[in-house]
Amino acid sequence: MLLPDPVVKMIRLFCWVLLIGVFFANTIIIMLSFIPFMFAAIGLLIKPPSKITFERSYTKDRVFSGDTIEISLDIEVHDGTGIVEISEILPRHFEVTEGSSYKVLWKGMGPQKYRLVYKLRCTTTGTYHIGNTAIKVSHCIYGHVHSFMERDPKIIEVSPRLFDTTKAKSISNFSKIPMPLGSVSNLGMSTLEFKEIRQYCYGDSFKSINWKATARNLNKGGYWPIVNDYEKEGKKSVWIYLNVSTSMSMGSNIKNSFESGLEAVNSLADFYLRQNAFVAFGTYNDMQEFIYPGSGQKHYFKILKAILKCSSSIGTARKNGNKQITLKEAIISNKKYISGSEPLFIIVTRYYDKFYDALSDGIDEMSKYTSYRRGGFKIMVVNIIGYGMTASTDLEMLCAELMQLRDYKNIQRLRKKCIWIDWDPSQMSFSKALISQVVGI
After folding, report:
1. 103, 238, 328, 441: which is deepest, by most CB within 10 A?
2. DSSP-derived secondary structure for 325-388
3. Fold exhibited by the domain 50-159
């Protein structure tokens, strides 16, 4: 068995001091030489902390961006004596709001239990693995350190926040939100295109009951029939495009323009799907993601899955050397699905002088597929103002306002072509910005 380095050093020290004492025939030096020998012998008899077990619990594994989760870590050290350092390895997008993810423990005689509790704020959309713990154990005498990693990964899914629909309940507010031009009645004729299965509601046709699904529901304890729901004729169509270039990364790891853009896309998709509209989702610039038009709760989860994928893929085209796809090119590639539907186009981006021409060309291309009504086309641009996210002092806030004024001139030209919404996430919520600034409809 190999001896630890501190023990070897103590034995060497013992030998050298002993030789010196013998050489000079000094009894005091000879007696002092046995001190490191005693420490080395006692150190070999006492074992460092070992046989460490963990039991981790979470309050929830699916949260919205900005929510907090509580993590409890029960630790039990069975053998040894010494110092135990425990540190939870967390993703950089998570913020500890209460407690601490780091703890130093003293392990005495006999098995001992400890509990580590802390709260995390999930600030960025995506899928994360939490549960990796770094452990350091130190010997109580000679301080020999042994490090290892305990892996017990748990998947935490962070979704963007939804649109605050409570603010849109009144007719005056609801009428301000742009809607597609196609007819959209929930009472329209049913088509043969299957939408989803749902719980029976008063007024549903007896023929629409799915008896097999109803039987399975009864076995699970449910008592309401399950019916087949089909698409209605005259659906509205909404196309949402998200800018995924690196210009959307303005801000910190905790809060940035891109994260706010994901929140806007998620809120708009959920809102229009609840209005019984077909919703399509696409990205442009650094990567291209496309979800075909669809409706229903199942389609919403398809869009949500694509949003979570975008969260970890921003800037990938530039890093991999792939060609960037402009907004105009993305629309042309999807024109066979757009033609004839007169959809509402929504662009979620952050205005940047470099992309003025590309954004203008994209809006012009969209205007070919929608009608001119009430002084404007059914095209809406959500401009995420990210300057305020990087400002922390009054002087920085003043600089952020000046940079916003610099962009105002070019934005005024774009306002003539579309419905323009400026949203500063550091100043107001998305629902407030959407309801208070929509003009030209």
Report:
1. 238
2. BPHHHHHHHTHHHHTTS-PEEEEEE---GGGHHHHHHHHHHHGGGS-EETTEESEEEEEE--GG
3. Jelly Rolls (2.60.120)
